[in-house]
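A quick aside before the break. I want you to see a complete sequence-to-structure record at least once, exactly as it would be stored in a machine-readable document. Don't worry about memorizing anything.
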Amino acid sequence: MAATASPRDLKAYFAGGGKAVNGWCSIPSAVTAEIMAQQGFDTVTIDLQHGLMDYQTALSMLQAIDRRPIPTLCRVPWNEPGIIMKALDAGFTGIICPMVNSRQEAERFASACRYAPRGTRSFGPTRAALVHGADYAKAANDFVITFAMIETAAAIANLDDILGTSELDAVYIGPADLSLSLGYTPSLLPTDGAVWDAIDAIRTKAKAAGKIAAIHCGSPGMARDMIEKGFDLATLITDARLFTNALADNLAEARRTTAAPAKGTY
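That is the input. The structure line, written in tokens, reads:
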């Protein structure tokens, strides 16, 4: 199955009403990343925050995915310009930044993703220029996607200000941290009404502000439901959880027992 958008066309794909089911790589392996990319996901993310890989392994994973090619995002460990710029120089299509709680933090993040005069990104696209073309310096400001993670009560309180950040393209909801911040048990499959109310409010405000809306999901059904509710991108669990669930199902079948794979977790 071909990718629904090329890396440089992902913003246009969303602008045209396209939807994306996103694969998530937390296992530090170029082989598993390559397998993920071959399954027909619309986008794939390499997770440097809670994933188990370091930068060099993430680069090797990106190289394996780029055989498609498929739009590939990186969740960076934190809102720190050095790793954001280094990830972009490797050739990632966009950056997901965790724990963005204010307009100042959103502006700091977005600025690190844009070359002057629109931002403060340092020039040195070591691999990015190889994979995205000789005009990368001119084109990158327009096609690199910036996702701010909205996952705390503070971020919800400051959401209008965050959404007012001009160089911010998208928000990405982390249901587990959002649940925890609101006083509930962390889960990628929330069961508390207040958490779902917050998720709905974030999506509604993001779309009204002209931003891409994305969310991490704890099951295939949740991913399908979120797309149907109006999200542009829904992440299908993680590779580690998919692997764990498949092992549990197959082992239970081999033993003729009923599997009880863990859901709603990383």
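Two observations worth writing down. The two ends are 27 Å apart (CA to CA). The first strand starts at residue 20 and ends at 25. We'll return to this after the break.
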